[in-house]
Design goal:
The chain is 60% helix and 11% strand. β4 and β5 form a beta hairpin. α4 packs across α5. It is elongated, with a radius of gyration of 28 Å.
Length: 275
């Protein structure tokens, strides 16, 4: 096989790879558009629950327990299920070594790509398959809640934090989940009279915490998936540009080799005519 044919075969292979990556980039972009709608609804739900908690705790502050930051905690890491998203998973693992994370007793990892990086960590409690699209988030979170319930049964009540990426920040975000509503501790009473309840305050607060935790984890899962797909779009866009540059270089190389072949053919014809 001539060198030009080898170059052309390589050029065809790069074209196939580029087409696949462009399709993956398009799908990732479409997923970000869909997640935008999911996030708007979830943010609204979480905001309403926070407003209810703010009013309620203004009158029943004793129900909100506090936990010293030195207490070992459980950390849920939201990584990726698939690749082609740059340093998305690597940066999450790096944050675990930073002092700002605090003392971590157990790790629960969402996303097998991240799980494969941290499977040797002695603190690892579980690896849960992550969501590739928004429609898979519900099932993933059901598995996560079951895992956290099992850990609570084994270890008793525990502080819980989440570590995940957001679309607007390069560094992962650390968010305390349990105990909840810590940022509301010193908020003044928004209403002069306590809310009217059909349940005892303690039972109402327990139900509110359960619903709030589920809503916040939903929001975090959507935010993380949004950030993952945004990084995938950027990563694949850079890869496609690199392939285009390689393809352009191969086209120039193929043209040069074709010119050499033509010159050789002309030389053979001229030599033949002389003889």
């Amino acid at each position: 096989m001539s060198r030009r044919h080898e170059v052309e075969q390589h050029l065809l292979a790069l074209g196939d790879i580029s087409s696949i990556m462009n399709a993956m980039k398009t799908l990732a972009y479409m997923e970000t558009r869909k997640l935008t709608r999911f996030l708007e609804a979830q943010r609204e739900a979480v905001g309403q629950m926070q407003a209810v908690a703010n009013d309620f705790l203004g009158h029943y502050p004793d129900l909100l327990s506090t936990t010293a930051p030195q207490v070992p905690q459980i950390c849920v890491l939201f990584g990726s299920e698939r690749g082609f998203c740059g340093d998305f998973n690597e940066s999450l693992g790096n944050v675990l070594r930073e002092p700002r994370v605090g003392m971590i007793h157990r790790l629960v990892i969402v996303g097998r790509k991240l799980g494969s990086r941290l499977e040797q960590d002695p603190r690892l409690a579980a690896i849960i398959g992550g969501a590739s699209v928004a429609e898979e988030v519900e099932e993933v979170l059901r598995q996560l809640i079951r895992t956290l319930t099992t850990l609570q049964t084994q270890n008793g009540p525990f502080p819980l934090i989440a570590l995940y990426h957001t679309p607007d920040a390069q560094e992962p975000l650390i968010k305390p989940l349990l105990p909840p509503f810590q940022q509301r501790l010193h908020t003044p009473r928004p209403l002069p009279y306590p809310p009217l309840l059909n349940l005892p305050p303690k039972a109402f607060f327990a139900g509110l915490v359960e619903q709030y935790l589920f809503a916040v984890i939903h929001k975090i899962a959507y935010v993380s998936l949004m950030a993952e797909n945004q990084r995938r779009v950027l990563h694949l866009d850079g890869a496609v540009r690199h392939l285009d540059e390689q393809s352009a270089a191969l086209v120039r190389r193929s043209n040069a080799l074709r010119q050499e072949e033509i010159i050789e053919e002309i030389e053979v014809i001229l030599l033949g005519s002389v003889n």
